[in-house]
Amino acid sequence: MAKDKILVIGASGQIGVELTQELRKIYGDANVVASDLREENSLLKGTGPYVSLDVMNKEMLHVQVIRQRITQIYLLAAILSATGEKNPALAWNLNMQGLLNVLDIARDENLDKVYWPSSIAVFGPTSPKRACPQQTIIEPTTVYGISKFAGEFWCNYYCWRYGMDVRSLRYPGLISYKSGPGGGTTDYAIEMFYEAKAEKDYTCFLKEGTYLPMMYMPDAIRATIELMEAPAEKISVHTSYNIASLSFSPKELYEQIKKEIPDFNISYQPDYRQNIADSWPQSIDDSVARNDWGWQEQYGLAAMTKDMLLNLPAGQQSANG
Ligand code: NAD
Ligand code: SER
Fold this sequence. Notes:
UDP-galactose 4-epimerase, domain 1; six-stranded parallel β-sheet; 14 strands
């Protein structure tokens, strides 16, 4: 059997850096090729191969897949919810064409597996607000959500039509300290941690009572790899799995951080991102992922808060803050 050789597209981003690091631990540094449109993230430098690559350039991508003898692709390049609303055409173009390029090449080169993340943004105002189930009304109102919903069904299509092994998770808002967030609505939570440590003062762009599904990055990375390593017969969802661990509001996160940093202050100035947040569920039912391949989170709010504050570099402000 051919040795696994993985290409991570979008490896310099918030998820890509940590996913590449973890994949390199499992598969060996030389067998995980990091790639991105922007420069290699400093945390990845010297840890394994890196290629500069635009996922929109199908020919160039195809050449790299053949040249590097790739057997699996993790596609992370995308425009997220808040940035997407500023340029809907660009978001649709990258999020859709990037995925279709990868799926076509994976089919033509008979790759073993493809991973592509969806999001809680597939859900819209008509979806259930609490414990939003795997299968429900899905009527997204953001261009990001529309692209994720369409993408899920393209993954499903390539699975049923061509027998491809494409796997996906609907990530909630991901919280991390290694690489800055890329322009999402849930980024407020990361900003709050940075500002708590740097300025002890934060103006939040969502209202204090806005509950959203969230997850700490170590749980998200583990979920991704566990899904990809699960036996194929355990995978019953070929669109994208609901996955959950936490649900909290800005006020609850603030109160948790304040336990560690008592002089931290917050104010609220909701902007256009409030409408996006209001269109999403407050919590997610992920029982299908738990039953199918044994998903189980490790971090609660208190444990995540302690770990974030311990590891965040002191005095640094959030990338998008
Ligand atoms: P990010 O913006 O931090 O990283 C995306 C990376 O893709 C960036 O490094 C960017 O330079 C790169 N990129 C952009 N255009 C490219 C192109 N044309 N070719 C190659 N690379 C390109 O995003 P992220 O937060 O790491 O998200 C990764 C994936 O996970 C996305 O599909 C996103 O929708 C999904 N997701 C993320 C979250 C979250 O909270 N971070 C939640 C749900 C889903
Ligand atoms: N964190 C993402 C966003 O806010 C959810 O997909 O866009």
